[in-house]
Amino acid sequence: MSGNNEYGSFPGTRPRRLRTTPVMRRMVAETRLHPADLILPAFVREGIDEPVAIEAMPGVFQHTRDSLRKAASEAAAAGVSGIMLFGVPEESNKDGLGTAGTDPDGILQVALRDVRAEVGDELLVMSDLCLDEFTDHGHCGVLDSEGRVDNDATLERYAEMAQVQADAGAHVVAPSGMMDGQVGVVRDALDQTGHEDVSILAYTVKYSSAFYGPFREAVGSALRGDRKTYQQDPANPREAMRELALDLAEGADMVMVKPAGPYLDVLAKVADAVDVPVAAYQISGEYSMIEAAAAKGWIDRDAAVLESLLGIKRAGARMILTYWATEVARRLR
Ligand code: PBG
Asked: Which family does it belong to (predicted)?
């Protein structure tokens, strides 16, 4: 009911009543972050004795095998659900085919075995399934004689990668190269090698983004050119639905949208459209922007970190890959 005074009418409805105290706000919150929502992406580098700080990602390191094991057990203790591993081979172990990516003794496979031995089933061990960290040209696939990324030749490499990653103990493999048909060949390769229970988290909707910049330093990539002939054009949300239909038909168990923050509209559409779990990847550039602005004193770091993650969850993500996973999981507990 509204009242009147000399200035006119009072509001009859007062939404502010539900914002009066922290407990009231907590009770009526429509979206909650939980440690189990979070997945930690982590880098492990071959041939180093000490972790190496990634300049463009303050607080993130290229791990040694030992420091990676420690990071994994800390993530598990904090209640994080998974760790997504990226291998950084020695420069001399890179070649045109990304051979180190399918070598059972390559850094990623070694790290998968280490982490699996460390955490067992307490943390989901996930692996990025892509060639870019292992190729000397930095592309996600192998090149044809004209220097173009050869889709079908790359699929054969991915099939082999899927098998060695699963053999090394991955619970989940995550094909991220945006090759046509990648989910199907990975599923077949897993099934034919006795890995029916290894699941596929597909990088389904992956845009060609400027925000991957800091990641290139993180994995020491010397990318020549760009990824515009295989990653999606940032202008296209409809095409995302096409990629989604294909990945589901090919057997994706979970699908991912990436980057997250600049693509919340796409994330919301994908989440509405499917009944499989949807992940979003808050990528390196999203991380670095907040850290950089906070270092300048321009934003409240801790509040901005939580708000950025809440926005991704609100848009429909079931799981979020974030470099802040362990820190945030601890804060939420
Ligand atoms: C491909 C891959 C990339 C990222 C995750 N998987 C790089 C790319 O596609 O250019 C980026 C992650 C990030 O920026 O945090 N192996």
From this structure: Belongs to the ALAD family.
ipTM of the complex: 0.96
Helix (H) / strand (E) element for 286: namely: helix 284-295
What pLDDT digit, counting tens, does each position of 307-316 carry?
999 999 999 9
Ligand 1 proximity of 284 Cβ (cutoff 6 Å): yes
Q: What is the DSSP letter of 11?
A: P
Q: Length of the chain, please?
A: 333
Q: Is the pLDDT of residue 222 over 80?
A: no
Question: Is the Cβ atom of 263 under 6 angstroms away from ligand 1?
Answer: no
The confidence score (pLDDT) of residue 3 equals 65
Could you tell me which of 30, 40, 137, 135 has the C-alpha nearest to residue 88? 135
Domains of the chain: 31-332 (3.20.20.70)
Contact 184, 159 (CB under 8 A): no
Locate the DSSP E strands across 97-198. Answer: 124-129, 172-175
d(CA 238, CA 179): 18
The number of helix segments (H) and strand segments (E) in the chain equals 11, 12
- Is the Cβ atom of 283 under 6 angstroms away from ligand 1? yes
For the CA of 203, the closest atom of ligand 1 is: 6
